Amino acid sequence: ARAGRAGRARMKGAVLIVEDEVGLRQGLCDVAKAMGCEAHAAAGISEARAVVAAQAIDCVLLDIRLRDGDGLDYLVELRATARGVPVIVATAYGDSERTIRAMRDGAFDYLTKPFDLGILRATIERALNQRALAREAGPTLDPPEALLPAAGQVR
User: Fold this and answer.
1) Distance of alpha carbon 82 from alpha carbon 51, whole angstroms
2) What is the pTM of this model?
3) Mean pLDDT over all residues of the chain?
4) Residues 6+ apart with CB under 8 A from 25
């Protein structure tokens, strides 16, 4: 049992991929599995809600333009319902206004399509490491957003 736990601590985690394009969704799941992660796929927001309700998720890769709703609205919902789970948003090249909104609304990071596989893997790894560290630290009095300077106070 101890060896299994040590292996799990090395980089395993459950990754939810919310992407409406079937080929890309499958490819992203394959990348997560190759990293040693448990991959959960959702074609849209309604499927993602069902996965989050049924499974412990450690990281979400969220397309911000989905057929069944706005990924940015779902990001806000996730920040409230899946507290502490890092959300990586995926955006098309040149969608800077929505990217800025995603970061303001609490996204862990953003990736542009088409994905650079090295950057994709590194970003997922960072998100899972952050999640693992947060779990080890236990609950905090303030959400992470409270520790950030308010808009306009950045120097």
Assistant:
1) 11
2) 0.81
3) 85
4) 17, 19, 41, 43
